[in-house]
Specification:
The protein is α+β, with helices and mostly antiparallel strands. It has helices spanning 16-22, 34-41, 43-63, 93-102, 123-126, 145-148, 162-172, 192-201, and strands at 2-6, 9-14, 87-88, 107-111, 117-122, 130-133, 136-140, 153-157, 176-180, 186-191. The chain has eight helices and ten strands.
């Protein structure tokens, strides 16, 4: 389940498929599944595209220990970062940049004064409003986080499939997805790095269901 939050509050709640239909007119889908690509190119292409995929899956399965106590990783709550490093929309860009640097993160959800999520801001976006020299802010353009943040922002529920979260990152061109509880409160965050780290370091991540 996904939600979308903007400066006016939550503007959408629904499944990945519903979200794609709602925003289909704004943005065409950027990626297609390997199986779909192969099917569109013909039977021979299907077989050729499956072979590397099958080999990768078999190699991944062989590296798994048969005595692992936990089951496969499926959901957001199993890999999300917590507590979440966030900034306020009213913060100046230099302050927000220092917060991200202090906690060694490259992006963070943006909250309003009521602690409701209204956007997301990256280190790259903040650097359009400040000048940095040797890790020190030498000039600030006086802009607030609200002036440079991305809004609205897509968030996911705790039991959302990790693969669907990865699909949202690709479809919307974002590097992270905030995780919210049933009340819509921000409780976690998943970045591209979290998914890659889980894939490499914490098998078994479910990739072939």
């Amino acid at each position: 389940m996904f939600t979308i939050h903007g400066v006016t509050g939550q503007v959408f709640s629904g499944t990945l498929e519903e979200m794609k239909r709602v925003f289909a007119a704004d943005k065409a889908r950027k990626v297609r599944a390997i199986e779909k690509d192969g099917a569109e190119m013909g039977g021979v292409a299907v077989e050729m595209s499956r072979r590397p995929q099958d080999a990768a899956i078999q190699a991944y399965r062989r590296m798994l220990s048969h005595d692992l106590e936990r089951g496969p990783l499926y959901h957001a709550y199993q890999i999300m970062q917590t507590p979440v490093i966030s900034v306020l929309a009213g913060d100046d860009a230099a302050t927000a940049w220092h917060v991200l640097r202090k906690h060694n993160v490259h992006q963070g959800p943006v909250l309003n004064e009521e602690r409701q999520m209204v956007g997301i801001v990256s280190e790259r976006e903040l650097l359009t409003a400040v000048n940095i020299d040797a890790g020190v802010v030498v000039e600030s353009l006086g802009r607030r986080v609200a002036d440079v943040m991305t809004t609205p922002v897509v968030a996911a529920a705790t039991v959302t499939d990790v693969r669907r979260i990865a699909a949202v990152m690709l479809d919307h061109g974002v590097d992270g997805v905030p995780i919210t509880n049933d009340n819509g409160h921000l409780i976690g965050f998943i970045s591209r790095s979290d998914i890659l780290r889980t894939l490499i370091m914490e098998p078994p991540l479910s990739l072939w269901r």
